[in-house]
Write a structure and sequence with these properties.
It contains no helices and three strands. The chain is an all-beta fold. Strand 1 and strand 2 form a beta hairpin. The chain is elongated, with a radius of gyration of 15 Å.
């Protein structure tokens, strides 16, 4: 966290862990209609019953919430399919 985009930065913790069956999530944050969302991917898809496969990515999103001091609450990755 920093007062401006150029820092200095202070580490405040991990936003979310690694995605299921994948070491990276390639996240993005979007504000939409007064809500903030974290978009990411996991590798839970299978192909012809084989998997999960690291090359088959599922797009996922979770709503993010801020604390009064501006920090972000940890984002829990759901396992629900909608």
């Amino acid at each position: 966290m920093a007062e401006n985009v150029e820092g200095p930065w202070e580490f405040k913790g991990e936003l979310t862990g690694m995605a299921k069956d994948r070491f990276t999530i390639h996240p993005g944050v979007i504000d939409y209609k007064g809500h903030t969302y974290l978009f990411y991917h996991n590798s839970t898809l299978s192909l012809d019953g084989y998997g999960p496969a690291t090359g088959r990515r599922s797009v996922c999103f979770e709503e993010m919430f801020y604390n009064p001091d501006g920090t972000i609450q940890p984002v829990v990755q759901s396992s629900e399919k909608e």
